[in-house]
Amino acid sequence: MGRFARTGAMVGALVLTASLALTGCGDDQKKAEFVGGNQPAGASAAPETTAGPTGSTPTAGAAAGPALQVSPADGAQKRPVSTEISAKIPGGGKVSEVVLTAAGGDKVEGLMRRDGSSWVPSSPLKYGTRYTATVTGTGTDGQTHQGSSTFTTMAKPKSMIGSGLYLFDGKTYGVAMPVVAEFSPGIPEKDRAAVQKRMFVRTDPPQPGAWHWLYNGTQAYYRAPEYWQPGTTITVRLALAGIPLSNGRYGNLDRTATAKIGRSFVMKVDNATKKMTVFEGGVLTRTLPVSLGKKSTPSSSGTMVVMEKKESTVFDTRDEPDPDNQYVTKIDFAQRLTWGGEYIHSAPWSEGVQGRRNVSHGCVNVSAANAKWLFERTLIGDPITVTGTERKLVPGNGWTAWSMSWSEFVKGSALPVPDGGAEPAF
């Protein structure tokens, strides 16, 4: 098994759809697939607040009270394009309507957070533009309060982070597909709570979830307590355009995607028996003999997901430090599980020992016929759990969001997570 490294280049302003590097068991290469996303995470559920671009209008004839205080303050300059609108009602109360217009009269769409803390524009504000916010609310005494503010956004900054979202719009994934956000350079720890508040995930049917940060802030995963329900729609928005960070950089752009979760297809591999059991829709449908990594190059124990599929490719491990692990081999039906080079793949050369002995360089070897059978049925995001090997899966070596308990996972959130997971922000 080769060393574990991640060398994918990050791109700031563009949405990349590059294929993942595929160089074989023990490789240490990676190329990212970057796309976009749209909705909540990280905020605890609170009573629904009815507000938006055309939110509830105050009751006709209601008594008028003192003006409420709008943020950003009137006359504010150089505000980030990630700015949200909030208001303080004298004596307390609830905002009922926010209207935001740009110079020239263009109206900005948006939604009030579920907890009522602020109103979030549905797309980034424009750089160097004047906006006017008019906010209406009802006080605890039943009086109507209104206030307005005119502010200007900052010019486009020169120093931005790169970001990526591993989710393709309109695609269908397996039940263990995490939402994976990536940043270059990583998000400083002191900024992660503010960034996480702008990383929105919504699921239909609703399933609470949480974010988990790793890699010194270069990656964050979002998942539910259990695998996604088959048929779920996941809508993601990483609303990071213009968000200021403590390292002097700003978020580069918003990324959005809506994807589907398909049927349940779960693979389990037990090193003790040298067999893979396959469950479709929760029912055991096939048992396959396997050969895992030999003692010098063991397979990783843990829950991984299929990240990439190649019907035919070449594994090239000539950069491995150990001459015994250097080879160039044509491989059929390769399914990547880790960045470090572990795959499920066809291995006709080991069919004689599959089910009895481990001889691979860390991959899950199956027969040519079984590799084809699996390849024709799996989706990106399908889970495989390997148990009983000499090596534990390293967090971040692949999409490892499911290789820890839910209680461990939520410890990686930058915001408090209610029992059972956070509800959407909207």
TrEMBL record:
InterPro entries: Big_10 (IPR041280), LD-transpeptidase (IPR050979), LD_TPept_cat_dom (IPR005490), Transpep_catalytic_dom (IPR038063)
Gene Ontology cellular-component annotations: extracellular region
Domain L,D-TPase catalytic per the UniProt entry, residue ranges: 265-387
Region (Disordered): 36-88
Catalytic residues (positions): 345 (proton donor/acceptor), 363 (nucleophile)
Biased composition (Low complexity): 40-67
Pathway it works in: Cell wall biogenesis; peptidoglycan biosynthesis
GO terms, molecular function: acyltransferase activity; peptidoglycan L,D-transpeptidase activity
SUPFAM superfamilies linked to this entry: L,D-transpeptidase catalytic domain-like
Alphabetic keyword roster: Acyltransferase, Cell shape, Cell wall biogenesis/degradation, Peptidoglycan synthesis, Signal, Transferase
UniProt-listed GO biological process terms: cell wall organization; peptidoglycan-protein cross-linking; regulation of cell shape
One Pfam short name: Big_10
Record's signal peptide: 1-23
Superkingdom of source: Bacteria
PANTHER family: L,D-TRANSPEPTIDASE (PTHR30582), L,D-TRANSPEPTIDASE YCIB-RELATED (PTHR30582:SF2)
Name assigned to this protein: Ig-like domain-containing protein
